[in-house]
Design brief:
Elements (H helix, E strand, L loop, with lengths): L1 E3 L2 E9 L10 E6 L2 E7 L5 E6 L5 E6 L6 E5 L9 E4 L27 E4 L1 H5 L8 H4 L6 E3 L5 E3 L7 E5 L2 E2 L17 E7 L13 E7 L7 E5 L4 E5 L2 E8 L2 E9 L3 E15 L9 E18 L2 E15 L13 E18 L2 E18 L5 E3 L5 E2 L3 E17 L3 E2 L3 E21 L2 E4 L5 E7 L3 E19 L4 E12 L4 E12 L8 E11 L5 H4 L6 E6 L5 E12 L10 E3 L9 E13 L3 E22 L4 E25 L2 E16 L2 H5 L11 E4 L6 E11 L3 E10 L27 E13 L5 E9 L7 E4 L11 E4 L3 E9 L1
């Protein structure tokens, strides 16, 4: 170690497990959770990085094909010494895992409550995740509903943010997550429920934040799931069920200077719907999901990273189910692309990060053929009513500056940043006639749409923020920050103050940590909200069931409401149509106990009160009828969770969680009417449980290495069933008291994956795996007759019973 002015420089040599120097190893220095210096080892394995002692510095060394390591540097490190860092080679079937050295203070990082997903273990779980989103149900408080949508704290995707490499990649038009990056390209995943860092915006429920891997000094490639899955019925082969090969390639394009990584998945699925007869029970989908990354080491203080995510996918017979057979379902084509360029430079004793990004989502939804759609309590017929195509883009420019550390009544790590985003959304849509009949076929209502319409929207979305991670002493740290943001379409300006704390009650022993915080959070209003003006208008005629008109024809205008001035002090709202600012006020507290070499236990309670949520409802007066899009909805979520990670190492580790959850609010049709797959009827609002609310959920999963190069990965889930809402013959919600909220029966599934690695030669191996799904053969119902006009109202049906799947992977 050597000193130059107030800075200390650490000279190190990076070697492999045979004491041979390694070149091209990325070295990063973290202080209080912020990167303050970076370097790349030369041909002799040497590198020099900077640290601001006496604060504790952590050196992070990562190199493709070797286990990543993090080493704390004590303030009393010997002057003039050279630190030697030895990286051990990974086994052929092993992925990079962060190992945080003992003794590192839990106060060094931000105090936002987060759940880290161990990617290397998630990949071999029975879920068999192909993408980042597929793996999220392994996180406490995150679940996927039968329609494939992710729910965080019981709330829909529109209330959460998906961030990949610091860039918001949600669909600008709908707020959906879409097809996320391949899981094989992901290095780290964090799910943060109401994080108290000002750098995060555009959410009220949670944030999914992922960082991708970079290529290394040697070329590495892999092929997973190369063989197709076949369908066998009554002992006979009846075609392919799925084909899901995944190819990965990484290595140096220019030694010690430029690295490359690519992960490409192809997926063809014919998913059976067990509530319909074969062969008219298949949802057919195809997709290409490709992620490429280039990492350039410009100098010892500068790096540049460029990524490209390319994801076209299509679905035939989307949302197929018992009540919507194939002719009633739409076909859909999506094309999602995101390109980013990030430059990082050590400057003025700090770190400056600059990122430019472009996200594009193209959507095309078409019915199977033209014609009328008929809705009845016992099932629907005809053709899907809607047709739409559109394209949404978002350009982003992000600047983040972390200045040098400041000593003043403790240690301060500041960060200031800005986001400038420009979004566009344009498209066309039209609707065909819809008839509503009772269970006996008597006409109750008709809906006629007023032909084709088009829209073109522009939105400017700037934000600036500042935050400080303040370590007061060895036992207490605070995070305080303020975020300012706006959307030009909403005509609102919003301030989001946030604060969090961490306290270690036992001096010099940091195995017990108490954390908490509170803050204000705002949803990003999807652009399709403002396309509502241009939606085809409904003309509704109501009948008595005998062919006589009782009301109408009544034309409903599409109206976007003007909300009154907010009493909430952090919102400044212009008085104009669409001045929406959905927000939540959230707080949490948690206690975490760590037992080295055994595991950790965390207990957490969180609460969030949401206001100004979007609503859609019909309003009729003597002079005018309208479908009114407003912002007066409320909601409340409360969640208690207990999580534990147990096991001596990453090869023998298990995770347990219990989540107690309450999520209730105004049930409205905004998502279903404004989304990609629209529902033709605007239902009345109701106070009910959120679609993803699960009052009790037990989850156990993990991986355990066995002799003879075998591995077993169990996955056990037990929970309440999802809530559902009763409707009448006119497809309107039936008001019920909250304690009468109907639910599916309790869900239980015991899954397991057993694998064995077999060497082909010195460099190649294959992994044979058997997945057992629902091994207990528990009845987990798929649908319910939820219409009170249905003679079978309240009856559950459909189930995926016990079944086995065989995997085959190449390991290189």
């Amino acid at each position: 170690m050597r000193q130059d002015g107030r800075w200390y420089y650490i000279d190190g040599q990076i070697v492999d497990d045979k004491a041979q120097p390694l070149s091209g190893v990325l070295i990063e220095v973290e202080v209080d959770g912020k990167i303050v210096s970076t370097a790349v080892s030369d041909v002799q394995g040497r590198a020099s990085v900077r640290c601001d002692l006496p604060r504790q510095c952590t050196i992070d060394a990562s190199f493709d094909g070797y286990n990543r390591i993090q080493i704390p540097i004590a303030s009393d490190a010997s002057a003039g010494s050279t630190l030697q860092i030895a990286l051990s080679k990974m086994a052929k079937n092993e992925e990079t895992v962060n190992v945080r050295a003992e003794g590192e203070s839990p106060l060094a990082t931000s105090q936002s409550s987060e759940s880290k997903l161990p990617v290397s273990e998630a990949v071999i779980s029975p879920l068999r995740p192909a993408s980042l989103i597929d793996a999220l149900p392994l996180v406490p408080g995150v679940i996927r509903t039968p329609d494939g949508r992710v729910k965080i704290a019981g709330l829909d995707e529109q209330h959460s943010a998906l961030i990949v490499n610091s860039v918001d990649v949600t669909d600008p038009a709908t707020g959906d997550f879409g097809l996320s990056v391949p899981i094989d390209s992901v290095d780290t995943v964090k799910v943060l429920q109401s994080p108290y860092l000002a750098q995060y915006g555009n959410f009220t429920a949670g944030v999914v934040s992922a960082e991708t891997r970079r290529g290394g000094d040697k070329w590495v490639y892999g092929l997973n799931d190369p063989l197709p899955e076949v369908r066998i019925r009554s002992g006979h082969l009846v075609g392919l069920r799925a084909l899901t090969p995944r190819f990965n390639l990484s290595g140096p394009l220019v030694k010690n200077r430029l690295y490359f990584l690519d992960g490409t998945d192809y997926a063809m699925h014919k998913n059976q719907v067990r509530t319909l007869p074969f062969p008219v029970n298949e949802i057919r989908s195809t997709s290409i999901n490709s992620f490429s990354q280039f990492d350039g080491m410009l100098t010892g203080t500068q790096t540049i990273t460029a990524t490209m995510h390319f994801a076209p996918h299509s679905v035939r017979y989307a949302n197929l189910n018992y009540f919507d057979p194939q002719p009633v379902t739409p076909n859909a084509d999506f094309h999602e692309d995101t390109g980013t360029v990030m430059h990082r430079v050590a400057l003025g004793g700090g770190l400056l990060s600059s990122t430019a990004a472009l996200t594009r989502v193209a959507t095309n939804v078409q019915p199977q053929s033209s014609g009328e759609m008929t809705l009845t309590p016992v099932g629907n017929s005809g053709n899907y009513f809607g047709e739409q195509s559109g394209q949404a883009t978002r350009s982003q420019w992000l600047e983040t500056w972390t200045p040098k550390l400041l000593d003043w009544h403790g240690h301060h790590t500041f960060q200031v940043g800005s986001v400038f985003a420009y979004a566009e959304d344009e498209g066309t849509m039209q609707g065909s006639n819809v008839s509503l009949k009772d269970a006996n076929g008597h006409l109750l209502q008709t809906i006629a749409y007023s032909g084709q319409s088009s829209y073109q929207l522009r939105d400017v979305e700037p934000a600036i923020y500042a935050q400080d991670h303040w370590t007061l002493n060895s036992q207490m740290a605070l995070d305080v920050g303020l975020r300012w943001e706006t959307q030009s379409l909403t005509a609102t300006t919003r301030l989001a103050p946030r604060a969090g704390f961490a306290w270690t009650p036992f001096k010099d022993v940091h195995t017990t940590v108490i954390r908490g915080g509170m803050g204000v959070f705002y949803d990003q209003v999807p652009l399709n909200t403002y396309a509502f003006h241009s939606f085809p208008q409904q003309t509704v005629t109501t009948y008595d069931g005998k062919g006589n008109i009782t009301d109408g024809p009544r034309l409903f205008h599409n109206v976007i409401n003007t909300e009154p001035n907010s009493h909430f002090p952090f919102i400044d709202r212009e008085k104009r149509s669409g001045n929406f600012a959905p927000y939540s006020l959230s707080w949490n507290v948690e206690a975490e106990q760590t037992v080295h070499s055994v595991g950790s236990l965390r207990i957490r309670y969180s609460q969030s009160d949401a206001s100004n949520q979007l609503t859609l409802q019909s309003q009729t007066t003597q002079d005018r009828s309208a479908l009114v899009l407003g912002g007066s909805g409320d909601g409340e979520t409360r969640q208690f969770d207990l999580t534990a990670g147990l096991g001596p190492d990453k090869d023998h580790h298990a995770y347990f969680s219990y989540v107690r959850q309450f999520a209730q609010g105004v049930l409205t049709d905004v998502t279903s009417y404004l989304g990609a797959f629209r529902y033709p009827v605007v239902r009345s609002t109701a106070l009910a449980s959120a679609a993803g609310e699960v009052p009790n959920r037990f989850l156990f999963w993990g991986t355990w290495k066995l002799p003879a190069r075998m591995n077993i990965a169990p996955h056990v889930e037990y929970r309440n069933g999802f809530p559902y809402q009763a409707v009448d013959a006119l497809q309107q919600y039936v008001p019920l008291a909250s304690y009468l909220q109907p639910r599916y029966p309790r869900y239980f599934s015991f899954d397991a994956r057993v694998s064995k690695d077999i060497n082909i030669n010195a460099k190649h191996a294959v992994r044979l795996s058997i997945n057992g799904i629902n091994l207990s053969n528990h009845s987990n119902f798929l649908q319910v007759h939820n219409n009170i006009g249905d003679p079978q109202y309240g009856t559950f049906f459909g189930n995926y019973g016990r079944h086995l799947l065989v995997d085959f992977d190449f390991l290189f």
